[in-house]
Design goal:
The protein has 131 residues and is of the alpha+beta class. Strands 4-3-5 form a three-stranded mixed β-sheet, with no helix packed on it. The longest helix has 13 residues.
């Protein structure tokens, strides 16, 4: 396998994902990285996000309302999607809870479950306060 060539643009994308608590779309990442690299294309951002995901250096979260979101937080955790405002938040459950969910899923599955990613839906506290 050929060694991956270093890219300052890819490193900038990875750094942005690691520093943000949000879960940006590729467009948001593009707008941020474009400040440092004015000639970067949206296609380059998409390719690098997909590469980082394939390498396990970022997580892609597909949402039902379209547009993948990206997360630089790599340790196992779940997410919450607000059905009103569209915010995507980390949902921190202890590892025991995640392992229990995996175990329950494995009981009815003829195979080996190694990990999981769950997306919970509802209203965030900000939207509840506004109601």
């Amino acid at each position: 396998m050929t060694a991956l060539k270093y890219s300052r643009q890819r490193e900038s994308i990875k750094h942005f994902l690691a520093e943000t608590k949000g879960h940006p779309t590729a467009d948001t990442v593009y707008l941020h990285v474009k400040k440092q690299f004015p000639n970067i294309s949206l296609g380059t951002v998409y390719r690098n996000l997909n590469l980082l995901t394939d390498l396990g250096e970022a997580v892609k979260i597909s949402t039902p309302n379209g547009g993948d979101r990206f997360d630089g937080r790599l340790e196992p955790h779940n997410h919450f999607l607000c059905t009103k405002c569209g915010r995507l938040l980390d949902l921190d459950l202890d590892m025991k809870s995640i392992e229990e969910m995996n175990h329950l899923a494995a009981e009815g599955f003829d195979g080996k479950i190694e990990s999981s990613s769950t997306l919970f839906y509802g209203e965030c506290s900000d939207c509840i306060k506004k109601s």
